[in-house]
Amino acid sequence: MASRPGLLTEWPWHRLGNFKYLVIAPWVIQSFYLLATKEMKDVSIPYLLIFPSLLLRMLHNQIWISISRWQTARSPHRIVDKSIEFEQILFNGILFYVGFHLIPSTFQMSMWRTDGVILNILFHAGPVEFLYYWFHRALHHHFLYSRYHSHHHASIVTEPITSVTHPFAEHIVYSMLFAIPVLAAAYTGTISMIQLVGYVFCIDFMNNMGHCNFELVPKWLFSIFPPLKYLIYTPSFHSLHHTQFRTNYSLFMPFYDYLYNTMDKLTDEVYEISLKGKTETIDVVHLTHPTTLQSIYHLRLGIASLASKPYKSKWYDLMMLPVAWMSMVLTWFYSSSFIVERNKLKNIKMQTWVMPRYNFQYGLSWEKEIINNLIEKSILQAETNGVKVKELNRSGELYLQKYPKLKLRIVDGSSLAIAVILNNIPKGTKQILLKGNISKVARTVIQSLCNKGIKVVMTNKHDYYMLEPLMFGTAQGHLILSNNCMPQVWLVGDGMDDVEQGKAQNGTIFIPYSYFPPKKVRNDCLYYSTPAMKIPNELQNVHSCENWLPRRVMSAWRVAGIIHGLEGWDANECGENVLHVDRIWMAALRHGFLPLLHE
Question: Where in the numbering of this chain does the Very-long-chain aldehyde decarbonylase CER1-like C-terminal domain appear (predicted)?
Answer without folding.
Answer: 432-595
